[in-house]
Amino acid sequence: MSKQQKVAIVTGASQGIGAGIVKGYRDSGYVVVANSRNIKQGSDEGTVAVPGHIGDRAVAGLVVQTAIERFGRIDTLINNAGIFIAKPFTDYTAEDFNNVVDVNLGGFFHVTQLAIEQMLKQKQGHVVQITTSLVEHALSAVPTGLATLTKGGLDAVTRGLAIEYAKSGIRVNAVAPGIVKTPMHAPQTHGFLNDLHPLGRMGEVKEIVDAVLYLESAGFVTGETLNVDGGQHAGH
What we know:
Layout: E1 7-11, H1 16-27, E2 31-36, E3 47-51, H2 57-71, E4 76-79, H3 94-122, E5 125-130, H4 145-164, E6 170-177, H5 190-194, H6 205-217, E7 225-228
Parallel strand pairs: 1-2, 1-4, 2-3, 4-5, 5-6, 6-7
Helix pairs in contact: 1-6, 2-3, 3-4
């Protein structure tokens, strides 16, 4: 393949929103390096699977190295990998804390630092975090202390990195979904989850993908967190 073909890295790519983002970028003509713990190489030569825990710096390095060695560049990094544990704050264990911080923050830190090094050489690039609208609007019905602690950090660093690298040709944005309809939510929970959104329903994976691809095409947008949450961030 041409070294000028656009290249995206997607973490948490094996299912749900991550798998949808991979498809969205492939449909847009990108080649994709896709990472998750148990991802397997499929028949699509334009999607290269790199399995492993993104919180491990060696795995993050392999993901970035694979993109550069196979395709010669990194145009976009989508930080989608994340762990969500809903518990009352005092019920979280030290293990819960370590696991969530390791993926949500550690995984972001390692792969983003390494990808930006390559983007600086290219003098262009785009980094997108998948956060949560709970960062701005907590829900009393869903205790989410560790999610807001870590995803709130990603929301803040999105703006910080956007300003730090604006003059280097690197944009940094985020998408903050509400609850998205995926197989992880059992059908018997759908009524409750639908009612958490002012629009009265959960989001669809495609709606999150569309938001990511909008940011990809929006060359004058950086430092933005785009809420895609059925109005949840505005109030309830």
